[in-house]
Amino acid sequence: MNSEEYEVECPQCTAGLFVAFGRYGTFVSAGDHVTGPGADAATAGRGELTPARPDRLAGVGARLYGEAVRAGQPAVAEALTHAFGQGRRPSCDTAFSVAGLVAEQWV
Known about the structure:
This protein is α+β, with helices and mostly antiparallel strands. It has helices at 59-70, 74-83, 98-106, and strands at residues 5-9, 16-22, 25-29, 46-47, 49-50, 86-88, 95-97. Strand 1 and strand 2 (16-22) form a beta hairpin.
């Protein structure tokens, strides 16, 4: 959460993706448009990153979101909605669960 991005693989084509949520915006990118060269000007090739609705979070997502709200950390709570939201790879138009892909990498 602190880095404001996750690096994952597309579940359809296995290409590397960056899922960004933070000061650079909220999006999915096939290239490192978050911190790489030309990041400020690079908006082409970005896919959607749709946050989860807080009232629809369940399990660990709901628990973490609730803890962030109770601790007075609205920026963390908002970032969690993106981490538990849905991404879409721009080139192959594949939709995916951000948390699902992140969890797969840690198993």
